[in-house]
Every structure is written in structure tokens, then in C-alpha cells.
Amino acid sequence: MLENINKNPFKVSAQEQINSQSMVKSFLSNVFTYMAGALAITGVVAYWFANSEMIYYLVSAETGMTMLGYIVMFAPLAFVLVMSLSFSRLSSFALLLLFIAYSAVMGMSLSFILLAYTASSVASTFFITAGTFTTMAILGYTTKQDLTKFGSILIMALIGIIIAMVVNMFLGSGPLDYIISCLGVLIFTGLTAYDVQKLKRIGSGVEYGTESSNKLAIMGALNLYLDFVNLFMFLLRLFGDRR
Q1: Smaller CB count within 10 Å for the chain: N or C?
Q2: Containing H/E element for 70?
Q3: Which pTM was predicted?
Q4: CA–CA gap between residue 238 and residue 18 (Å, rounded)
Q5: How far is CA 190 from CA 67, 100, 152, 153, 193, in A?
Q6: Could you say which DSSP state residue 8 is in?
Q7: Would you list the domain boundaries of the chain?
Q8: In sequence order, what DSSP letters do the residues of 31-63 get, joined into one string?
Q9: pLDDT digit string (tens) for 22-42?
Q10: 8 Å CB contact between 185 and 238
């Protein structure tokens, strides 16, 4: 009798569900810790560069952007490509070091924004971004609806606005820039929910504390970091007050 009770499939299923939820929470806790740390590094470096003489090495009063300035501006893209393409070959520690370096270089790049916009508008936009991001992250975690198709549409839309932004660099159209900014806010708001749901599924299938789960957590943090930063940038373009 006792043996039959111990083999009850409903009890096993319930225990497995509890273990799965625990793994998901631990995995997502790691993801958000890495993301928060990266955002803190970016913010400190951006503030330091914007308020020190280091900014003059990136921008010259006579010639505008310097060669070093262009390197700093495009370096974040190189870091993302290296982390993505070398994911299987790099250790979790090496991946983490790259993520830290990436967040610091991103701070240097964003220091230009602190010079272009007023401090009050940057601060208010940051809090709006944080509130929007948190709301969508909770939605992505709690919703029962599968967001896979929704995410695919958003990714295609993202490719479209990237192309539009490149075209508008030559056209210089104000109305098109406004439309791109509005679409950018919508896209990255949606991608936040999609990415959190995707990470929730990944977390339920990995063993917490392993090398593989640590690497996946770092890459997940990178995705959410990009969602947050891009959402912030597009909101700032819409509502930020220039100096």
C-alpha cells in the first residue's frame, strides 16, 4: 500500500513542477542580476565620461567626432557579435568579462546623449523606461499566451526600422524620425515581454549552477539589457529635452 502511494504519479508531477519553478526563478534571478549590474556600469561610465575631460578625446571642437569617438560608437556592436558568435567556445567567465567590457564601452557611447539632453529629461525618461520594462517583464513572465509568433513579427519589424534609420541618415526627415521612434518604443516594449517568456522557458530546462546555465543567463541578460537601453533611447528621442 505504501509503495503504491509513493509511486503516485500526481505527487511526482507536483514535485517536478515545484522543482521546475524553482529552477526558473533561480535562472531569472541570475539573468536580472547580470543585467542590473551591466546597467549600473553603463550609467556610471556614461556619467563619468560626460562630466570629465575624457569626452574631449572622443569629440573635438574643431573636427567633431574623432577617430576614437567613432571606434567607441561602433565598438558595442562588435562586442555583441563576438559574444554571440563565440558563445559555444567561450567559458562563462570569459563571457562575463566581455559583457562587463561591453557595458563599459556602451557607457562611453551613451555619454554623448548626456551631453545632448538635459539631465532632468534623461532622469525622467530613465524612470519611465524602468516602469515600462518592469511591467512588460512581469507580463512576459505571467502570461499563458505563447508569444513566439508575436516575437517573430517584432524581430522582422525591428529589421525594418533599422533599414529605415539607415535611409533616414541620408534623408534627414523629421517626420520619418518621429515615426521610427514611435515604432521603436512599441517594438522594444513587446520584445521585453517576449524575451522574458523565452528566458522563462530556457530556465525550466537547464540545471541551475552549471557552466551552460551560467552562459545562457549572461546571454539572456545581454538580450534584456539591449531591450532596456534601446527602449530608453527611443523614448528619449520622443520626450527628451535637448540642451
Answers
A1: N
A2: helix 67-85
A3: 0.86
A4: 44
A5: 36, 26, 11, 10, 5
A6: -
A7: 17-239
A8: HHHHHHHHHHHHHHHHHHHHTSTTHHHHEETTT
A9: 778 888 999 999 999 999 999
A10: yes
